[in-house]
Write a structure and sequence with these properties.
The structure holds two protein chains of two kinds. Chain A is built from no helices and eleven strands. By secondary structure, chain A is mainly β. In chain A, the strands form two sheets. In chain A, strands 2, 4, 5, 6, 9, 10 and 11 form a seven-stranded mixed sheet that branches. In chain A, strands 1-3-8-7 form a four-stranded antiparallel sheet, with no helix packed on it. The radius of gyration of chain A is 13 Å and the shape is globular. In chain A, 39% of the residues are buried. Chain B is mainly β. In chain B, the strands form three sheets. In chain B, strands 2, 5, 6, 10, 11 and 12 form a six-stranded mixed sheet that branches. A four-stranded antiparallel sheet of chain B has the order 3-9-8-7, with no helix packed on it. A two-stranded antiparallel ribbon of chain B has the order 1-4. In chain B, a hairpin with a 4-residue loop joins strand 8 and strand 9. The chains are: A mainly beta, B mainly beta. Chains A and B meet through strand 5 and strand 10 of A and strand 5, strand 6 and strand 11 of B.
């Protein structure tokens, strides 16, 4: 158990809908990262927050947004969902920046029908 | 473009034999290199990293990796494979000076260890 929790584990929704994925980092970790894993794209970095502030953006679509709250948990919002958004979404946390090892949550499997 | 390549989609090894999972990278400047492992239906787990110093890095579960700057490689190795090592292995790089958090992952290599 990495200490990172993600909810929900599974999510099935229809095209055009909006969903929110939630992540609680390990106790003491200030950084939260979001990744998307799919068969065709592999593991793609989406966004990084450190202590409430956005630090880096990767291949994140404009339809997606995220935030990190004062208690350090984070939410990833996905809107106007398309079939191609179906994937496994991982949250990871670390003590500091990306030179520190990242601890991954179990992921949220999103299926868009 | 900065990238990481794992040239083998799958590596098959007999239990007890040495294993190597290959990784090469292309980045500007000095890289920071990582290996992660993913077991079925689980998130990734950190194995080891190279930041600076000794080119041979030792990590979890008996794994090690060697940083080779001239060949731009960071191959993962283990002297004696276990069936329980069967999993998906990812190499990742953070380019020196790159924005924090921006790890670039390879496509992954599936390691299969047969008894």
């Amino acid at each position: 158990d990495s200490g990172v929790t993600q909810t929900p584990k599974h999510l099935i929704t229809a095209t055009g809908q909006r969903v929110t994925l939630r992540c609680s980092p390990r106790s003491g970790d200030l950084s939260v990262y979001w990744y998307q894993q799919s068969l065709d794209q592999g593991l793609q970095f989406l966004i990084h927050y450190y202590n409430g502030e956005e630090r880096a953006k990767g291949n994140i679509l404009e339809r997606f947004s995220a935030q990190q709250f004062p208690d350090l948990h984070s939410e990833l919002n996905l809107s106007s969902l398309e079939l191609g958004d179906s994937a496994l979404y991982f949250c990871a946390s670390s003590v500091g920046g990306s030179l520190y090892e990242q601890y991954f949550g179990p992921g949220t499997r999103l299926t868009v029908t | 473009a900065q990238s990481v390549a794992q040239p083998e989609d799958q590596v098959n090894v007999a239990e007890g034999n040495p294993l190597t999972v290959k990784c090469t990278y292309s980045v500007s400047g000095n890289p920071y290199l990582f290996w992660y492992v993913q077991y079925p239906n689980r998130g990734l787990q950190f194995l080891l990293k190279y930041i600076t110093g000794d080119n041979l890095v030792k990590g979890s579960y008996g794994f090690e990796a060697e940083f080779n700057k001239s060949q731009t490689s960071f191959h993962l190795k283990k002297p004696s494979a276990l069936v329980s090592d069967s999993a998906l292995y990812f190499c990742a790089v953070r380019p020196y000076g790159g924005s924090q958090g921006n790890l670039i992952f390879g496509k992954g290599t599936k390691l299969s260890v047969k008894p």
